[in-house]
Every structure is written in C-alpha cells, then in structure tokens.
Amino acid sequence: MARGEPNSQGHGCRPTQPSWLNYARNQPVYARYVERPQTLEELRDVVREVSGRRGRMRGVATGLSFSDILQTDDTLVVLTDLKSDAPPRVLLPLEEELWRDPVPPEARVRVIAGARIRELNAALAAAGLAFENLGGYDGQTLIGAISTSTHGSGLFLGPLPSMVQSLDLVTTDGALYRVEPAKGITDPDKFRRRYGTRMTLKQDDRWFRSCVVSLGCMGVIYSATVTVRPSFRLIERKWLSTWSLVRPKLAARTLFDNLRHLEVYLNPYRRRDGDHGCLVTERNIARPEAAKIPVPESKLAAQDLVFRPSTQEGLLKLIEGNPRLIPSILEYSLEQLETGPAGHLDDSYRIYNIGKINTARVLSGEYFLPMKDNVYLAAVQRVLDVIEDNRRRGVYQSAPLSLRFVKASDAFLSMAQGRETCAIEIAMFTGEHGAREALLSYEQALYAFEARPHWGQLNELTGAQGWLRSAYGESCQWLSVYRELNHKGVFDNAFTDRMGLSKELARCPR
Amino acid sequence: MSALTRRGVLRFAAAAGIERLVGGTVVLQILGCARAPPIRWRGVDVSSGQTIALEAGDLPPGVTFTGTYRSPHTPRLELLQQGALLSGRYGATEGEWRGLISGRVAGNLAQFDWRECRPPGDASDPLNGTGYFVFDPPASPEALTRLFGWRTFCIGRPCEQTRDAGPWTAVRVPK
Q1: pTM, entire model
Q2: Is residue B76 less than 8 Å (CB to CB) from chain A?
Q3: A227 — contact with chain B (CB < 8 Å)?
C-alpha cells in the first residue's frame, strides 16, 4: 500500500474536490490523507502513524451512513480493500482450535472488515449457511453495519451486533486486541500459546458491549466472529390494509403471532375515507423442501424502470412541481408492492434484500422507540401530526413511514439497548424541497417519546448537553472504554466533537 | 434404495462418468468408456475461510469415518463405519436424535440415504433424501478431520423428484 498523498493545495485551504463521498453524496469528506490498507499489518501501520503524531483518523467502508459519523479532516481509512488473500476473500480462518471446550453446537464464521454483506451471502450459501437476520440492503460491509447497530425486523431477533461473538480490534498505537464477553469463545491458554504478546485477549463484558457498537470511536475492527445458521428459505407475503385495522393489532400484539418478521409501511397521508393506507410485510421460515416462488419478472422490470436515475429525477421534478400528488403516488406505490396470497419464497438472503429501492437517492432518519406501553404507537401518531402540519406549510413527506421491530440489545450504544424497540424510518428524496427541515422536525418531535436516532442516519440534536446519558442509561460504561482505547483522541472526529463525548465522560459518576 | 441396488447405480454412474458439482448438479458425461471422473466437492470451508475443491479418492490406511462430529448444518453427528457399511445419526442437541443415515463407503467417499423427523409439532412425513461425504484427513497433527458433503431432498412419496438441500460439512470432535 502506498502512503496516501496529502489531499490539499498547500495553502491550508479546503481543497475544491472532496477526497471521498458517501453513498447518498451528502457527506463530502475533505481528508488530508486517504489510506486503503489491504492487510492487517498495513492497517496497524496507519493507526500507529496517526497515533504517533497525535492525529485523527476515521475508518469508513461503503459509506452508507448519512450522518457526520464518517467525517474527518485528517486521515480517512477506507476499509473496502481489506480482504483475505484466498477466494472468496471475505472470510478468515475461524481459529476454532483456540475455542474453549466443549464447543457449542452453533455455526460460526469469521468475517473480515472489507466484506460486503452480498459477498458474504454468496460465500455462506456455498457453505450451506446463512445469516439469521439481515437488513434490507446488502451492499454495505457487515462490520460497518454492526458498528452502527443496523438491524432487520423481527421482535424475537436482535440487531446485527447480537450475532457477534468475538472482535479483532486495531486501536491506538496499532495495538491489537481480541475482544469478547467475559465468558467468550476463546480459551485464554490456547490463545496465549498461539499469539504470545502479539495480540491481547480481552474477555470483558464492559469492553465487549462497548466495542461491538463502537461507532468507529474505539479503533478499527479488523474482523468479527459471528453466529450463523444452516441455509434456510423464507416465505414473504405483503398485503394491503389500513392503519385503523393494523394499529389495534399492533397494540394488542396479535399481529406478531406466529410471525418471524413483521414490517409495516404506512402512508402518512389520509385517503378520501379518512384512513391511512398500510402495507404489511410478513415473513416466516419456509419448509426446507419447498420450491421457490420468485418475484415475477414483470415486477422486477417495473422496479428496474422506477428506480433508474433518470426516472427518479423525473419523479422528483414531478413532485416538486405538484407536491399535492404525493399522497396518491404513495398509495399507488404501496398497491404495487402487494404480493398476493402465495407471496414469494426464496433463499433467506434474497428475501431480506429489498432490491432496487435501495438505489433511490434518498436521505433518511430512523428513530428507535420503546415498545413498552405502546409508546411507539403514540409516537407514530405524533409524526403523522407533524407531517400534516408540514403539509400546511408546503413541505411534503415523499415516502411512507417504515415500521420495523427489534429485540433488545445489550450493546451499550445500540439503539435497541435494553428495550424491545420499534424503528420508524422516514426517507425523503435527496435535494427535495424542505427534506432536511422535515427530518429535523420529526427528530425534534420524537424526543418526547424517548426516541434514539440511528447513528448512521441523519441526526442533528443528539449533541445537546446531557442527551447521551439521558437516552442511553449505560453510556458512561461505553465512555469509560472510549477513554481507555482512545486516550490519544485518534478516533475523534466532527461527530464526537459535536456529541461532546469528552465532556459527557467528565459528567459520569466516578 | 438397497445397498445392492445402490452398488449397481454406482457402477452405472462410474461407467457413465457422473460428476457432482457444488449446487448438486449432476452432469452426465457419456464418455463411451469406463473411466469416470470422481465425485468432486467444491464450496466454501468456513474453518479455513476459503473455497476448496476435494475429489473422491483413497482413504489413508487405518482411517475410518467412525467418530463424533460437530456440524454447522446438523450440530451433532455420529458415524459408525463397519467395513464398507456406514451408519449414523444426527441431531440438534444432546439426547435428541432427529435424523438417521445409512450407506456405503468406498475410499474416502461415503454415499448414503438419510431420513429426518420434522421439528416437534409438525406431523408431516419425515424428510428424506440422498447425500455423500468426502473424508478430508488432517494435514498436520494440530489440524482437525473434516467431512465435506452434499445432500438432496426427495420430493414426493415415492420419490418423484429431488431438490438440493445444500452442503453438509462436519468437523470431527477430538477424543
């Protein structure tokens, strides 16, 4: 790996071209250096060099985040080239010979930082395995998704960090740690015999629960050993309903009965009958010998057409000129997604991936709300009210609200930490009139309902003094590990500055 | 399928040159001669993290399939080889045996039928089908013995068609 060239014009001025752009193109990064390590040693060299001069660095991969979490003005470390040598290049040796006896009967794989979920899905399929649960997009790296507590949907399934058993972390000065829970999978004696002083095994719940959702603030995660399961197929059905029918079933929890996955798309605008249209997506494990029922070719072709950049631009122009069409467009879109009673049946990872919709140029916020006492349902009503208020001011919400459900997580800064959670995701076209203001208005309204915004999606108000400790009851534990691993401030950036993490730590009880 | 019939099928397969590829594809290569390409397993080995290919061949002297294995696909697997006969059982947890296998061994290749109960509460007919394991002896004293295999479902009763169930791999638990 060649040392990255300084990306400046030598006058202390900001260069005209950003050195890197995220997927949504809303976060240009003007880094002084851009590094692309291809091996663990190259990664350690970068971290050592930046630590040595007390600089700052930030690890990024596919840039799915919309927030300033991926910003730096010093060294940007792009991790997508960090792959293993041999095909399929996304897995590392498991090192199962270092595990404690008896080995439990669960399947595991060890994933490298640059591995995208779609590459891992293919590799796992060729091993007869699959991830238990996934989000709707497979283009990002798994470790990037884990680090921000990305999730799928299923009240009995945790967010992605819940499948992590062990992490290899490169931190300040290039130090290398294997971080696991106190009763982690690795046998300390076997580990010591293999690695001596080259790597430190840290089996500590406080460290593990901090590092697994680290937001890039503890170092760079080189690899993760995660639990997987034998390949399986899912059957998915999507059916139209109305909020007045769905809401009481959510409140009574009867809609979750016998369903592994449940998602609800909600049209925020009322129909002529005064109700809101809904699309309910349910998924269950199919019988192992069941034949596939693929998505019809005509539907795939229609999706391909709708999500082409030119079509998207045309649609954006149309709604900019005629925003009153948006409620009808949303209703029509939900109708097009209905599957009919047979549904789709396919390999799990193909069902999880929601397809071309991922290519839409949107910005979004996602807000995680407690399921307890149905707080989230009151929050949905509040968002609907805000959207109605915004409409009176000429600002329209151009996508449905998406409701997904996540089991509680024990990672200190997971948005699902310590509580069953409903995630309300709200997207808007990038560049749409009033998009950022609208998203800010939702965020502002939802704090009254104990909302935690997704770290990787737009969030503006999380930096308010005391917010972190009020929203995350165990954040002081996370902050104490942050202080230990980031004692030179190497992994600080605009996000940690805005969040005032050092000041927050000072306010934690000793 | 009886062992005798199976042997007959294997002879036919050898004569016809049947090759199994990952994905369970059976390619019939009518070669017009008796030389047959061996069964070949190609897939991802999660232990090494690599794509590997293994061919059926000889088994090292004194080595058998007999042993207890852990498998990412059927967590516990016990195999017993007696001469050329193979029998076994597998299950999810201690004391819960869900499936049985029976078949024959030739060199480092075991070909078998399998039959598996449905999960509790599902009264449907058991699943069944065919499969194979290729035995991969440890490359060094520290390394583990592995099986790389594949299985197919039998659909219908009697079996009207087959469908791939996918890879079936296992690691022998050291004594």
Answers
A1: 0.92
A2: yes
A3: no
